[in-house]
Amino acid sequence: MANVMAQNRRGGLKRYYDVNGWLFIAPALLLIGIFLIYPIISSLTLSVYSGRGMMMKFAGFGNLVRIYNDPIFWKALTNTFTFFIIQVPIMIVLALVIANALNNPKLRFSGLLRTAIFLPCVSSLVAYSILFKSMFSVDGIVNRTLIGLGLMDQPLNWLTDPFWAKVVVITAITWRWTGYNMIFYLAALQNIDRSIDEAARIDGVPSWGRFFYLTVPMLKPVILFTTITSTIGTLQLFDEVYSLTEGTGGPSNATLTLSLYIYNLTFRFMPNFGYAATISYVIVVLVALLSFLQFYAVRERR
Amino acid sequence: MSRSVFSDRHSARLFGAIRYGLLLLAAFLSVFPFFWMLIGATNITADINTGKVTPGSALFDNIRAFVAQVDVPLVLWNSAKIAILGTAVTILVSSIAGYGFEMFRSKLRDRIYTVILLTLMVPFAAIMIPLFMMMAKAGLIDTHLAIVLPTLASVFIIFYFRQASKAFPAELRDAAKIDGLKEWQIFLFIYVPVMRSTYAAAFVIVFMTSWNNYLWPLIVLQSNGTKTITLVVSSLASAYYPDYGVVMVGTVLATLPTLFVFFAMQRQFVQGMLGSVK
Amino acid sequence: MDTLPLKTFALRAALAGATLLAAAPAFAGEITIWCWDPNFNVAVMREAGARYTKAHPETTFNIVDFAKADVEQKLQTGLASGTTNALPDIVLIEDYGAQKFLQSFPDAFAPMTGKVDYSGFAPYKVELMTLEGKTYGMPFDSGVTGLFYRRDYLEQAGFKPADLENITWDRYIEIGKAVEAKTGKKMTTQELNNGGMTRIMMQSAGKWYFNADGELDVTGNAALKGALEAQAKMVKAGIVKPATGWNDYVNAFTSGDVASVVTGVWITGTIKAQTAQAGKWGVAPTPRLDMAGSTNASNLGGSSWYVIESSKEKDEAISFLAEIYGKDVEFYQKILADRGAVGSLTAARSGAVYQQADAFFGGEQVWQRFSDWLAKVPPVTYGIFTNELDNAVTANMQALIAGKPADEVLKDIEAQAQTQIQ
Fold first, then answer.
1. DSSP secondary-structure letter at C26?
2. DSSP secondary-structure letter at C297?
3. B4 pLDDT band (50/70/90 cuts)?
4. What percent of chain C has pLDDT over 90?
5. Which of B66, B125, B168, C216 has the smallest C-beta neighbourhood within 10 Å, fewest atoms?
6. Distance CA B81, CA C22 (A)
7. Which residue from B123, B129, B270 is facing A183, i.e. has the nearest CB?
8. Which residues are within 8 A (CB) of A266 and not within 5 positions of it... i.e. 6 or more apart?
């Protein structure tokens, strides 16, 4: 709309328009330039160096060769993708279903339920790591409950078993972020014209049918938005695994993610800032590719 | 006919029950850890470790021990200062930019916008070291300014305001122009009041992120006098023998402000989200 | 429209905001120290500072505590940034990481050869902070290990304290089985994601992941192989209660769930905090591997103080460390009595507190025993990649327990380690 206006008043107004345009974004551009773009460029230059701590030497493509031969890197990449492929769909579907269930004007206590489900995302990393670690310990409340319900005979070593540790991580991320995504869907649902849904209901379309063929397609832009932000979040996954495994990514590197590996290469292992920077650009390339694919997938069907 | 109405009503009732069941389960699972944190604050370490779910009698001992170890007013003041001032400036700078990108479109600015969006994909770990070197050169290590500066122009919030601005009625802008208002006056006196709830939602999100921020403050802050509540709780939890009752008191204290902000603004928050997803 | 008041208001608000945020600390003559546990080394440092201030009232101390991992992380960031105002004057570094810091940040730490009489300290502590003939840092606490056990449980299973003296790990497993059969309690607990037990067992035989030249020593390392096999055997024998993390681990023995734990002497304070268990505990020497060269003494952790070379207070910091940690025998009695910190200054062991019998441990002269074992800890070269190797070992532990032959597991560990240590 604004650019239509611009086209209408070329000439002197164009300059006025442009000056204002730059003025409005100038403070943000300045800050982004200094605190984001500049560090990004300097870490890119780091990625052609390698070495111990401050003893860095020019390595050219050396870091890329090392990535190729590094089994831990591939393990971290596989884990990151496992989390991404399993967790993002589960969370998106759950958030959609919950949002849809909440979006009913006749529902009692909907405000209360909505607040409760949103609550996890306000918790801080520190609080949440302390809580989850003790809940999933061998004598913890989760084991006690499951045994009490008769679902298990003996306690499960959640965080020391490679498979179950992954499950805990996925549970933890889902717990924290489902409510957050749900709010976006709920907001979008309330924007949707209810009369279409109503008409379909009168035509005898069952509620699951309305959900899949009416609601979901109308939410496509929001779903795309949340999927991309969740993709970025999952591929950069750090907080949850760092705090649940005391920084090790254990057991047997089963929960090691790319970001945690970068952290370890920078802070826990013999510091190799160049190699760490190189791996972080692998994440950038992956996120960019996946976001593009997701955009593409949505565009295609239009 | 009557049969189908019956079955429809029947299935509607069933659906209603499932809906409630699902929502209640989700709400319970979401809230339980918070409940458990509160219970934990009243128990001693041994009970917390064995998963005791009933309130104990150690609450006052835990609070006393916490207050003895931590300068509570100071760390809360540090956290609040960073979160409130940081959030206010972040929202101002980022909303101005989001508004600017949407209202004054040009090819070049749209390209710049795309580049900015791409930076969302760079993990923080990648820029941490250069950023730290910068702060050190500027002499800002161990100041709260160093924590706030890199967050002031939030790409996500710029994006959020640009999306929301699409819903800002053009007629309002045109009318204001005819009245002779300058662009910044339109923004300040018309856009900001109209977009109140968008601002509220942004406030909740930015405040939460800022209050809970851990990694960057950890690296930048050096002395006891500047530490935030999150850092203090984390260091309590990592002793050779952490007193978990005390740690729980700390986590409750660290969580309360974000809960308070959310509850205080939750109506505007949900409304504000509406704008961003159009 | 009058915009002026609004502008000045905005400006004033901005200024107020900026000054609020930029409040910077630091006075002259102040020694800043980073360390981690408020009940242990932080408290010890406060005591040391208080003693020094008595003689030098112009010096003040700023002791800052962070989580242990956070201290390392901040140090590494500060050193990497190459700026001196980002660092403290003194920092505590765990011994395993000492060489990593000394070698990857040359000239970052102040050499103290000639300013401190290192001959008075346990040799293994001095060796790990020496690089190319220069010694950096002030040796602090020792991580000499011992077998902490519940007298009551072992008695119930028919074992006397003498039965635990100088045993092998195989014997330990047998005792463990008997204890579980009689008391229903597991013999011990272990954090399976942590390489601590491997390090204890390996060092008891004077070996490490690396040889004295810092080269990888895995596939041919009999001590490492023995350590891995002993742990797999313990798990398979069912005498281990697995722990998911540090807190779970500590909880297992403080709550009375397990009958014993083998770990560093620094855990003593934690165990003694369980006042209800007074008199029920005992200490015995660390079990040894069933192989030639393995002794009944080892080490886990321990840390030392380092002075930053570029610090403005460098000289003051060194003289402070030399005066208190270097020779104050009384100080060592105090921190031992108050905090259970076993220093590595040999002269301190003649002090009164070291001779005391401890009723909590059934009247044993616990400290005397630990200092006897301390003298027997085989010195090893920790090298610079201990964290990487720990990671490789724990990553392959599951396969070993699942039944993969130890030699093959060692090959896997070596293969993983090789890509990590370039």
1. -
2. -
3. very low
4. 55
5. C216
6. 11
7. B270
8. A272, A273, A276, B125, B128, B129, C76
Q: CA-based diameter of chain A, in Å? A: 80
Say how far apart CA C374 and CA C142 lie, in whole Å.
8
Q: How many residues does chain A have?
A: 302
Q: Which CATH code is given to the segment(s) C145-299+379-420? A: 3.40.190.10
Intrachain domains C30-142+301-350 and C145-299+379-420 with the same fold: yes
Buried b (16+ CB within 10 A) or exposed e, A38-72: ebbebbbebbbbbbbbbebeebeebbeebbeebeb
Identify the three-state secondary structure at position B4. helix
Q: How far is CA C384 from the centre of its chain?
A: 16
Residues C112-141 as b/e (b if ≥16 CB within 10 A, e otherwise) read beebbebeebbebbbebbbeeeebbbbbbb
B37/A283 Cβ within 8 A: no
Per-residue pLDDT, C28: 47
Tell whether the model's pLDDT for residue A7 goes beyond 70: no
pLDDT interval class at A300 (50, 70, 90): low
pLDDT tens for A157-180 read: 888 888 999 999 999 999 999 998
| pLDDT < 50 stretches in chain C | 1-7, 23-28
Dihedral sign, Cα of residue B268, residue B269, residue B271, residue B273: positive
For residues C27 and B78, which has the higher predicted lDDT (pLDDT)?
A: B78
Q: Does C83 touch chain B (CB under 8 A)?
A: yes
Any idea what the Cα angle at residue C152 is, between residues C148 and C157, rounded to 5°? 100
Cβ neighbours of B237 in A, within 8 Å: 126, 130
Tell me the pLDDT tens digit for each residue of A259-275: 899 888 887 888 888 89
Using a CB-CB cut-off of 8 Å, the residues of chain A touching B125 are: 238, 259, 262-263, 266, 276, 280
Q: Which of C327, C376, C321, C318 is nearest to C348 (CA)?
A: C327
The CATH number assigned to the domain with range C30-142+301-350 reads: 3.40.190.10
Q: Is domain A71-300 classified as CATH 1.10.3720.10?
A: yes
- Whether B169 has a pLDDT exceeding 90, the answer reads no
